Amino acid sequence: MKYPVLLDHSTIGITPVSNGIFSEAEEMFEQAFKRMEERGFKIVLNEDIWGQKKARAVSAEKRAAGLVQMMTDPNIDVIMPPWGGHLAVELLEYLDFDKLPTKWLTGYSDISTLLLAVTLKTGIATAHMANIVDLRGNHMDEVTARWLDVLSGEPGQQIIQTSSERYQLEWDHEHPTDIVFNLTEKTEWKAVDAKGHDLTEARFEGRVLGGCIDTMRHLIGTPYGDVAAFRDNHTEGEDILWYIDVSELDTVDLKRSLTQMKYAGWFESAAGVMFGRVGKPSVKEDYTYKNVYQDLAQELGKPVIYDVDFGHKPPQMAIINGAYGMIEMIEDKGQLTQWFK
Which residues are the signal sequence here (predicted)? Predict the structure, then answer.
């Protein structure tokens, strides 16, 4: 594995890989860029971020070219696409993965489609974490703020992140708090064992991989989703610690997608699976999300920890694709330890 390192006063490149910034959101992003400059970073913008047409910022070719330009620019240290969307998968065919340098790529939601593909193809670690627009507050909550520590970690370093006290139930962009998020609901991590029974304690470890299943599932069966090749080429054959963010999939669609992952061999040698809080829950008939997790745990014979701090209901930890990780839960709290090895 190859791990980038974020240094003080680094230059952040902002380029679209999925959605662009529509006019109603421009003020939010201007505030985010200013806040990062106040924190000592330099911001470089690809002007293609401004605007949105036909469910994307610009064409796949232009998005890919903008990404490659910033990835290969020695004066840019980290790439933070503005936010997710729908069609990041389009640009993968235009990337020469062998020429990508070791540089942080960050974000979540549809951005995770790109992040997972880059890590699987190259062995370069990528960071599933809050988007730059979510970092625009005067302050950051204790969980979100750890992104700086995580991205600054040196190869060989161990980094521990702990669960939040409260999380945000719904987005309210019109009334952000001083930390952006409205953290009103009590955080409670939960787990089931390999038989689907509730657990008060759970722990598993392995090489970390994952992302937003709504979009990353479309890597299955493509050259960009070869998990077996990643294990052979970039690891020492460790089990995989899967993390899965569910944005808008209903319970049946989620189960279909997890079954497809299983059929494709993605869960072979899985140590266990952790799920974030579901962004927009939609239960089909009486088949709940917990039922899905129980079914998956029984099918894989592995534990599942869910309602963990990542994904579309912040705050979220910075989770590193390719790192070696250990997830632990005791009662309703927990921690994620990651080693850059």
Answer: none
Helix (H) or strand (E) holding 79: strand 78-79
Q: Do 132 and 173 fall into the same domain? A: no
What three-state secondary structure class fits 239?
coil
Tokens coding 293: 């997790």
**Count of domains for the chain:** 2
Rounded to whole angstroms, how far apart are CA atoms 300 and 234? 24
Q: What is the pLDDT of residues 41-86, one digit of tens each?
A: 999 999 999 999 999 999 999 999 999 999 999 999 999 999 999 9
Instruction: Answer yes or no: do 149 and 60 share one domain.
Output: yes
Question: Residue 294 maps to which CATH number?
Answer: 3.50.30.60
| pLDDT tens sequence across 103-118 | 999 999 999 999 999 9
| Span between the terminal Cα atoms of the chain, in Å | 7
Reference 17, options 45, 49, 54, 41; nearest CA is 49
Instruction: Give the mean model confidence (pLDDT) for residues 203-230.
Output: 98
Calpha distance 132→111 (Å, rounded): 12
Tell me the pTM: 0.97
For residue 174, pLDDT over 90 is answered with no
CB 3 within 8 A of CB 153: yes
pLDDT tens sequence across 302-335: 999 999 999 999 999 999 999 999 999 999 999 9
Tell me if 207 sits within 8 A of 123, measured CB to CB.
Answer: no
Distance CA 47, CA 135 (A): 20
User: Which residues span the domain enclosing 46?
Assistant: 11-155
Cα–Cα dist 223/36, whole Å: 36
